């Protein structure tokens, strides 16, 4: 069956169309997605979350481990004053802790070197000396602090498993060829993963996040699930997730799209410009 165009009710049409066009043009899976940012120029929660993504990519951490690290980061900073902490040090700590939570061994030395060289680009990794051990001890201390702040509740039900399940259901309805005619699975996964740069990812049920990511991917490719209404009891959203609320879904989708606006803004404001001496 061929998929056809969906028009989602409830979103601001101009906002939606502009952002969807941006996603279509930029390709969410492009190799140059992680353009270099000069993290030394400012500290912010969004920069800290993006730092986790960049370092996670370099460490070859699994997407789930990166998502866990990002959620730990957002939850921690909801409980403390941002100005009292180095967001990049906390980001490295979150990656270290996430590796334990998700049973992916991320060596502390690798984390330190990746974090250090991502901030101080074109500089060699730290040697085993005073600066290295100070960095390592800071991560260990921050890990203990984070555990206490979060009351040792560090595990989280991720939306990724719901996304996989819902995509499988859609594939069964429309057939493998129609589902994969456009990269619906890859795009919805990328949208969901990128939303972990926003603290709002911790504010919604994982099922709602998965549905919103698929909705965005469908709209990017101008597709719909056939034999289903756009909303209501016969919509694919209601079938896979009976608890869906259209207003909440629109809210989530706008926030998911906003992440790309924020990233483009910081890339424009804090680009890394290579110098001869790497400073």
Low-confidence stretches: 1-11, 24-32, 275-279
Sketch the topology as an H/E string, one letter per element.
HHHHHHHHHHHH
CATH architecture of the largest domain: Orthogonal Bundle
CATH class identity of the largest domain: Mainly Alpha
Radius of gyration: 20 Å
Count the DSSP helices: 12
- CATH topology (level 3) name of the largest domain: Cyclin A, domain 1
Mean pLDDT: 83
Tell me the domain tally: 2
Task: State the fourth-level CATH superfamily of the largest domain.
Answer: Cyclin-like
Number of DSSP strands? 0
Give a quick set of tags describing it.
279 residues; mainly alpha; Cyclin A, domain 1; elongated; disordered N terminus; disordered C terminus
Walk me through the structure.
- Keywords: Cyclin.
- InterPro entries: Cyclin-like_dom (IPR013763), Cyclin-like_sf (IPR036915), Cyclin-Q_first_cyclin_box (IPR048055), Cyclin-Q_second_cyclin_box (IPR048053), Cyclin/Ssn8 (IPR043198), Cyclin_N (IPR006671).
- Residues 50-148 form the Cyclin-like domain.
- Pfam families: Cyclin_N (PF00134).
- The chain is an all-alpha fold and 279 residues long.
- The chain has two domains: 13-30 and 157-269, Cyclin-like (Cyclin A, domain 1, Orthogonal Bundle), CATH 1.10.472.10; 39-149, Cyclin-like (Cyclin A, domain 1, Orthogonal Bundle), CATH 1.10.472.
- The chain has twelve helices and no strands.
- The protein is elongated, with a radius of gyration of 20 Å.
- Residues 1-11, 24-32 and 275-279 have low confidence and may be disordered.
